Write a sequence for this structure.
């Protein structure tokens, strides 16, 4: 790597760097113009800020929320519910996928039911959870679990089935039982599958949490949005959406970073 | 006789019907012998190896190992697959000791044995590498050491060189042959490559097209003392090659 670069290589690297900077610049300009245009339109009364809100009003709302201590309370409630939801969804989904892999007949029996449940819009079950579990965080977590569970089962189970049959045979000839094959081959071969399931579940959990909070809660971002729209405080609704955007992105990026770190650590992940 | 194959027959059942894979195969293998099984593709030679390995059950017939009827996977038998099947998330050391882990034999004595094997066959300095850092030939040697680690007396080799390019295949075949001889193992090699069979084995069993029947067994004991490379230069190499070739031709 230390040798001097050829002129062609240097030119290539330079043009690559320039293109990257250019794209980043355009992205910032795009965001800034949308915010500015929105603010300008609201101030000039081209649009009614009572309905559309405006960046400055959103900012003021956020500051007030923070001053009253509500911001982190609501944010915290939603984040905890989301994390609980995707952690439970991933763990329970994986456990069920292991059962299906262990007992192929069970998987054959359950196949049509999984397909049907997978196509059911899980949000329709919300009211049922509320009646069964009661209006509270437990019902919201049940909601997120319902959304992420079936997808996780199917994805992880398919990952298990995709393990190279040659390697399965190798484990058999080494005298491995089903448990050893699971822990020494099938699980590690699916490290990437677990990570992608977690990534998908983070997104699905947010859907479940917001849906659940719409229905029952007295706290959380979903509650703020519903409350804001009911009392026609569009500033509050918009501010919460912005907050949600930041929280969901941060969580997704966190998982993506975790994935990167694990891949680096483990090296040759499948 | 370390392995006896008696009247082995295999029929695969499927919703569309039956497929006969093997028909009345009988022969036996002596301790320390290197035997190859050749035949046209789809003749069931890999099936026969799977049956000896205990991965599949024969429809009829028995396999005896050391005079004992074989039931399922047998620790006296080591199996070397077509591809090296090294696990990419494990280091070379963790790969070659996989069998010891499975048998719960990760004690000092067994670990020292595997270390000696790695050192003897030029892989000691790659212990902490991951498989992708090794060449195809080195990976195949690791696969053999993984098989030898649990101390089997019989090695089953299922076209272990077919995934390698020609150049590498010749040198790896030489390495594997030498290792098997040095460790004093009995070996059963399945291959579709006649020259590979002639260059490595003491006897060659020729199977017919499906359902595979044993056509003949060619004796090559004259070449026993020679390495695969030397054998390829031997005056009788082509005669043996042609004899087996003709037998296969007759199978159609």
């Amino acid at each position: 790597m230390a040798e001097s670069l050829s002129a062609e290589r240097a030119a290539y690297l330079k043009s690559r760097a320039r293109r990257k900077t250019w794209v980043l610049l355009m992205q910032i300009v795009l965001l800034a113009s949308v915010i500015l245009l929105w603010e300008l339109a609201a101030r000039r009364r081209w649009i009614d800020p009572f309905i559309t809100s405006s960046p400055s009003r959103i900012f003021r709302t956020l500051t007030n929320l923070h001053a009253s201590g509500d911001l982190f309370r609501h944010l915290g409630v939603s984040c905890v519910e989301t994390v609980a939801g995707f952690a439970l969804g991933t763990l329970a989904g994986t456990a069920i996928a292991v059962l299906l892999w262990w007992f192929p007949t069970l998987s054959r029996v359950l196949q049509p039911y999984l397909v049907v449940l997978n196509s059911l819009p899980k949000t329709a079950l919300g009211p049922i959870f509320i009646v069964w579990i009661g209006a509270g965080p437990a019902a919201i977590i049940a909601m997120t679990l319902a959304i992420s569970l079936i997808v996780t089962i199917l994805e992880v189970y398919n990952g298990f089935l995709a393990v190279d049959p040659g390697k399965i045979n190798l484990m058999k000839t080494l005298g491995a039982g089903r448990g050893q094959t699971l822990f020494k081959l099938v699980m590690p071969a699916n490290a990437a599958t677990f990570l992608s399931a977690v990534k998908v579940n983070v997104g699905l959990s947010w859907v479940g949490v917001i849906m659940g909070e719409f229905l029952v809660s007295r706290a959380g971002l979903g509650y703020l949005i519903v409350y804001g729209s009911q009392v026609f405080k569009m500033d509050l609704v918009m501010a919460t959406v912005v907050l949600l955007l930041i929280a969901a992105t941060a969580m997704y990026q966190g998982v993506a970073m975790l994935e990167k770190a694990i891949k680096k650590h483990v090296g040759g992940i499948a | 006789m370390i392995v006896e194959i008696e009247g082995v027959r295999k029929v695969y059942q499927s919703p569309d019907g039956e497929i006969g894979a093997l028909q009345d195969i009988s022969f036996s293998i002596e301790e320390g012998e290197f035997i190859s099984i050749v035949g046209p593709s789809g003749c069931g030679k890999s099936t026969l190896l799977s049956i000896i390995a205990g991965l599949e059950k024969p429809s009829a017939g028995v396999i005896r190992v050391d005079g004992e009827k074989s039931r399922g996977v047998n620790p006296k038998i080591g199996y070397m697959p077509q591809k090296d099947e090294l696990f990419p998330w494990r280091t070379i050391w963790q790969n070659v000791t996989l069998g010891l882990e499975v048998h719960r034999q990760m004690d000092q004595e067994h670990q020292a044995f595997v270390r000696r094997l790695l050192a003897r066959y030029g892989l000691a300095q790659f212990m902490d590498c991951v498989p992708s850092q090794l060449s195809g030939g080195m990976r195949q040697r690791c696969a053999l050491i993984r098989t030898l680690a649990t101390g089997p007396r019989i090695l089953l080799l299922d076209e272990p060189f077919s995934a390698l390019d020609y150049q590498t295949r010749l040198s790896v075949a030489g390495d594997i042959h030498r290792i098997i001889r040095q460790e004093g193992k009995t070996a059963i090699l399945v291959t579709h490559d006649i020259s590979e069979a002639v260059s490595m084995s003491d006897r060659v069993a020729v199977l017919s097209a499906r359902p595979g029947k044993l056509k003949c067994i060619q004796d090559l004991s004259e070449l026993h003392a020679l390495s695969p490379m030397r054998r390829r230069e031997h005056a009788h190499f082509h005669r043996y090659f042609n004899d087996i070739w003709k037998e296969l031709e007759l199978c159609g």
Summary: Chain A has two domains: 7-47, 57-266. Residues 7-43 of chain A form the longest helix (37 residues). The radius of gyration of chain A is 24 Å.
